[in-house]
Amino acid sequence: MDLCHVPAAREKGWYLALMAPNVKGPNYAWLDPSRLYCHPQGLQDCVADLLQPFQGDAIDMVAGIDAMGFILGAAAAATLQKGFLAIRKAGHLCVQTVAQPYSDYSGREKVMEVRTDAISPGLRILLVDQWVETGGTMRAAIELVERLGGVVAGVAAICMENSEGGKWIQERYKCSHCVPPRLQPHFDQHHLSWD
């Protein structure tokens, strides 16, 4: 899809066709959503779709997960007129932090951290990431927020796969994603054709 083209009918998820498949091999995610962020209307509609289920909900802050969650998280925070908190990979913050180990979608062991002075008890936080595949990264972010006394107001991502970890999150938290039900099985199987 052309980065300047805006379809006449913009149903939920129309912008998913802007994403590109992996051409670099197994060390990369199977699909790259970053092209979607280059399309002004696509990005706006994606953020609107992510936030729609949370309209009227009490949200005090938006937190985005390093690194691609920063883009959607900051856009969501700006739309909601709320502050933005970066949940970082370990070693990038020069302030007091709390850390949480996790396994990412590729099975690699990692550690993420968040500053300790941004979350006060009872603060309601919307967690945003680009993708929830196995759920390990998002679950670590949830644990960080809750360990500091924050409340997870919701979880939002372009796609939440129906993996064991994805289901665990969806069973316990209010969630939002952009994949229409008819396309969900394709995303879960990591096979998608736009033809």
Secondary structure blueprint with pairings:
Elements: E1 20-21, E2 31-32, H1 40-51, E3 61-65, H2 69-80, E4 83-89, E5 97-103, E6 109-115, E7 124-132, H3 136-147, E8 151-160, H4 164-172, E9 175-176, H5 184-188
Parallel strand pairs: 3-4, 3-7, 7-8, 8-9
Antiparallel strand pairs: 1-2, 4-6, 5-6
Provide key terms for this protein.
9 strands; globular; alpha/beta
Structure description:
This protein is α/β, with parallel strands linked by helices. It is built from five helices and nine strands; from the N terminus they run E-E-H-E-H-E-E-E-E-H-E-H-E-H. It has helices at 40-51, 69-80, 136-147, 164-172, 184-188, and strands spanning 20-21, 31-32, 61-65, 83-89, 97-103, 109-115, 124-132, 151-160, 175-176. The chain has a seven-stranded mixed sheet, with helices on both faces. A two-stranded antiparallel ribbon has the order 1-2. It is globular and about 45 Å long.
Rg of Cα set? 16 Å
Structural class: alpha/beta
Quaternary organisation? single chain
> Any low-confidence stretches, pLDDT <50, length ≥5?
none
Tell the overall outline.
globular
- The total beta strand count reads 9
Q: What is the helix/strand order?
A: EEHEHEEEEHEHEH
**Count of alpha and pi helical runs:** 5
How many strands, what sense, and barrel or not for the largest sheet? Answer: 7 strands, mixed
Distance between the termini: 11 Å
| Helix content, binned percent | 25-40%
